[in-house]
Design goal:
Belongs to the OsmC/Ohr family. Helices cover 32% and strands 27% of the residues. It is globular and about 45 Å long.
């Protein structure tokens, strides 16, 4: 495998902390979401993960659409990242990717969505590790 790019982000303070990328593009204060005892109005790890996965996923969907001759340029994906309690001291993530591909039948959209999920690097990283549902709407 040939490494093409490395992102470097320094995190301090955990869920109530701060992250900053080595290039300074990301420089964010983090807080737990209100539902986990934190505050509204701040970024949190699940929001960042959802945004990163969604962007990467749409890149994979674009490749699949190009391969299959389907215009997916207007496609969107709503990524839902759940923070779930498994036991008193154990937590796990779950995900739903709601994929919208205008102008094509739902069954064709689902096939494209599933193919993009097979190829997306974030999807590959989570495969077999968390519960993921791909839903074409």
């Amino acid at each position: 495998m040939k490494k093409l790019y490395t992102a470097i982000v320094t995190a301090k303070g955990g869920r109530d902390g701060h992250i900053k990328s080595s290039d300074g593009i990301i420089d964010l204060e983090l807080k737990k979401p209100k539902e986990l005892g934190g505050e509204d109005g701040y970024a949190n790890p699940e929001l960042l993960f959802a945004g990163a996965w969604g962007s990467c996923y749409l890149g994979a969907l674009g490749s699949v659409g190009k391969r299959d001759g389907v215009d997916v340029s207007e496609a969107t994906v709503d990524v839902h990242i759940g923070f779930n309690q498994e036991s008193e001291t154990s937590y796990a993530l779950s995900a739903e990717l709601h994929v919208h591909v205008p102008g094509i039948p739902a069954d064709q959209a689902q096939k494209l969505a599933d193919a993009a999920h097979r190829g997306c690097p974030y999807s590959k990283a989570t495969r077999g590790n968390i519960d993921v549902k791909i839903i074409a709407e």
